Amino acid sequence: MTVPLLEMQQIRKSFGGSVALDGVSFEVLPGEVHALVGENGAGKSTLMNIASGVLQPDAGRILWQGRALPALDPRKARQLGIAFVHQELALVPQLSIAENIFLGRHAQGPPALVRWGRMRDHARQLLAELGRPLDPDSPVASLGVGEQQLVEIARALAFQARLVIMDEPTAALSESEVARLFQVIARLERRGVSVVYITHRLREIYQIARRVTVLRDGRRVASAPIAAMPHDELIRHIVGRPAQEQFPPPGPPPRGPCALRVERLTARGRFQDVSFHVRAGEIVGLAGLVGAGRTELLEAIFGAAPFDAGQIWLQERPVRIRSPRDAIRLGMALVPDDRKMKGLIPRAPVVWNLVLPSCRRFLLRPAEERSRALALIGDLRIRPADAHIPVSSLSGGNQQKVVLARWLLARASVFLMDEPTRGIDVGAKAEIYELIRRLAERGAAIVLVSSEWEEILGLADRVLVMHRGRMVGELPREQATEEAIMRLATGGVP
User: Fold this and answer.
1) Distances from the Cα of 136 to the Cα of 107, 124, 482, angstroms
2) What integer pLDDT is reported at residue 254 of this predicted model?
3) Quick one: which of 129, 209, 276, 301 has the fewest CB in 10 Å?
4) The pLDDT of residue 324
5) pLDDT single digits (tens) 241-261
């Protein structure tokens, strides 16, 4: 019988009166890709922070290659070969690739001088082994997110990592970058390196994982070979109830008036000659590969970025939108692609984040402000239901609900949604899908950008596709398939 590389037995961890892990056992075999899944707040990050020595368990024990570890801290974990590639990459943008790979552990010669040549050669070799022969002297700031992730992995391998923990590694990657990452993971597996793969994108684990473990409410509820875990059963374990239809049923064809029309909108270097329209009560999916110009287009329409030519119409009237303030005043809403950087004030209370676009309405009326905020928190099932805690203390799914709730409070009628379910779990996704459908049924016009094309196919009444900054096709619901979208998104014909 193969001895696990890492074995965690009956791990318990509490924060104050809240139990984060309740007797969780978890093991990783040598050279195995093991998926760890569960809803936000299920205990995945806490368990892996214990595995990497960042947190200490209240009870339970950890074994490495069958031998119990009396104590584990980050330094000891690194010495054993445990590396953690976090979703928020910990790189120094101004330094070179080589400097980041060996940060704090530079190769030194006899007089304690840094051996730059040796360091560059080693970095070049590591990157070549990962299938991306990047220039080790290039600054990290010049790299895309996918390449930065490879630098993080190279840093782990530079010091003989035997177990690499990856937390939501594909959340900000394009389809091609995801494919390259999977190739890297396959190389690690062939070299005998173990990988713990944390993700909310359940389809991915069927592509790369050998086993899957599910946590729910701080407990392990399932662990099995991936081949023995059907997709519906996996969802049932994650959310604690039988898998239902993920997307709410479509409504009748939208017949409302045109709510948003864009004519020949151009922003040099970002998108060109873009025209489309959205009716009241309609969900229009906007598909394309990363870099196609979708985010830039939405931000320009909302006044968050300039454009050079073109015209925007709202309710069949031409409008000038020079700033987000103008857009909000006209009844528009933007759900940005990065809620932490663009959508929330993390340290501010939930109620402040909710009322940001509507604060003038509640000036000197704090009681009404609190009442409306609490009503929305209950309506959207935001947990915990406390309007005065920092929004950063909420899970990703609940933070996204706060971003959506603020526009309900602002009485928006045109919604521009950019990756509204990025980085959130399957249960929270279903609630957000339901909210999007409800908004359309109430007459809102919605433009939905998503890199998960099954979302667009499950929600959109029509699908528009962008390629290299241009609108290249339109697909009605009955003709929209992943294959048809891919052909258009890569510059082909439908």
Assistant:
1) 15, 6, 37
2) 85
3) 129
4) 96
5) 665 567 888 888 888 899 999
- CB-based contact 155:95 (threshold 8 Å): no
* Structure confidence at residue 16 (pLDDT): 78
The Cα–Cα gap between 396 and 406 comes to 16
What secondary structure letter does DSSP report for 343?
I
Phi, psi of 487 (to 5 degrees): -60, -45
- What is the pLDDT averaged over residues 425-437? 88
**Straight-line distance from the first to the last Cα atom of the chain, in angstroms, rounded to the nearest whole number:** 52
Dihedral sign of CA atoms 359, 361, 365, 367 in order: negative
Question: Which residues have a Cβ under 8 Å from the Cβ of 196 and sit 6 or more positions away?
Answer: 28, 34, 35, 36, 48, 51, 163, 164, 165, 166
**Phi, psi torsion values for 439, nearest 5 degrees:** -60, -45
57-81 core/surface letters (b: 16 or more CB in 10 A; e: else): beebebbbeeeeeeebeeeebbebb
Of 398, 380, 257, 360, give the one whose Cα is nearest residue 316: 257
Q: Which two tokens stand for residue 378?
A: 């209950």
> What does the alpha-carbon distance between residue 238 and residue 225 come to, in Å, rounded to a whole number?
16
Measured CA to CA, the distance from residue 289 to residue 298 in angstroms comes to 15
Residue 482 phi/psi, 5-degree rounding, is: -60, -40
- For residue range 308-331, list pLDDT tens digits in order: 999 999 999 999 999 999 999 999
Give the per-residue pLDDT at 106.
59
Question: What is the amino acid identity at position 487?
Answer: R
Calculate the alpha carbon distances from 437 to 61, 173, 284, 405, 475 in Å: 47, 27, 12, 14, 19
Spell out the residues 6+ positions from residue 4 whose beta carbon is closer than 8 angstroms to its own.
Answer: 27, 28, 29, 30, 63, 65, 66
Residues 310/263, Cβ–Cβ less than 8 Å: yes
pLDDT tier, 494 (very low <50, low <70, confident <90, very high otherwise): low
Rounded Cα–Cα distance for residues 127 and 329 (Å):
50
Q: What pLDDT is stored for residue 198 in this prediction?
A: 93
> In sequence order, what are the beta bridge partners of 414?
332, 445
Cα–Cα distance, 128 to 133 (Å, whole number):
5
Tokens 């009241």 label which residue?
A: 280
SS3 at position 67: strand
> What does DSSP assign to residue 286?
E
Q: In which order are the strands placed within the sheet that holds 67-68?
A: 18-28, 6-15, 59-64, 67-68
Quote the longest CA-to-CA distance of the chain: 78
